[in-house]
Amino acid sequence: MNTLLKSLGAIILLIGVAVLAIPAFTTTRSNTVLAIGLFAVILGFILHILLNRKFE
């Protein structure tokens, strides 16, 4: 369980990258999708740092 919690930040970061890749392959150019992707990347980055400090 600790391994999953340690990598939760990286998983959220990869989800954010996938969300940001959606407009690159489709014709939709929505700022909402880009904002959600940006939020997920930033949240994943912060969670990755905090969870690695807590579980190491």
Question: How is this structure best described in words?
Answer:
- The protein has 3 helices and no strands.
- It is an all-alpha fold and 56 residues long.
Q: Quick summary of this structure?
A:
The protein is mostly helical and 56 residues long. The protein has helices at 2-6, 8-25, 31-54.
Number of helices: 3
Overall morphology: elongated
Task: State the end-to-end CA separation.
Answer: 13 Å
For the residues shown, what is the average pLDDT?
89
Helical content stands at over 70%
Number of strands: 0
- Biggest sheet record: none
Percentage beta strand: under 5%
Indicate the low-confidence ranges by residue numbers.
none
Structural class, from secondary structure content? mainly alpha
Q: Specify Rg, calculated over alpha carbons.
A: 13 Å
Helices and strands, in N-to-C order?
HHH
SSE topology sketch:
Elements: H1 2-6, H2 8-25, H3 31-54
Helix pairs in contact: 2-3
Offer a few descriptive terms.
56 residues; mainly alpha; 3 helices; 0% strand
